[in-house]
Amino acid sequence: MNENEQSVNVLLDFDLLGKLVVGIGEVSDITGVPLRQIRYWEEKGIIHSSKEGEGTTRKYDYLNIKKIVLVKELMDDGYTLDAAAKKVEERMRNVNEVFAKLAKRSTEDSQEK
């Protein structure tokens, strides 16, 4: 298996993605979004962190990191923060609906067998 195939397999490992939790500093480094901006987006309710206690570092899961990347891309394309956040929520809702339909079909298909 070459390196490209390995990276694709990692992306398809939903168990791994479910466990992915990254600190705010690393999220900032990876996405290019400044810490201050990430905190502001959280204050506005666009993204959500998990904090294990008072004074601990904010940590973000896969879903929120994805939202950060999408909001940043839309803002880079000229959208305002509010418009970008709304568009991302619509996209996430559409994707969730599609996967819910696929899961339902899969369940129905396995029950018919």
TrEMBL record:
UniProt domain HTH merR-type: residue ranges: 24-90
SUPFAM superfamilies: Putative DNA-binding domain
Keywords: DNA-binding, Repressor, Transcription, Transcription regulation
The keyword Transcription regulation belongs to this UniProt entry's keyword annotation: yes
CDD domains: HTH_GlnR-like
InterPro entries reported in the protein's UniProt record: DNA-bd_dom_put_sf (IPR009061), MerR-type_HTH_dom (IPR000551), MerR_fam (IPR047057)
PROSITE patterns recorded: HTH_MERR_2
UniProt entry tagged with the keyword Repressor: yes
Protein name: MerR family transcriptional regulator
Taxonomic lineage: Bacteria, Bacillati, Bacillota, Bacilli, Bacillales
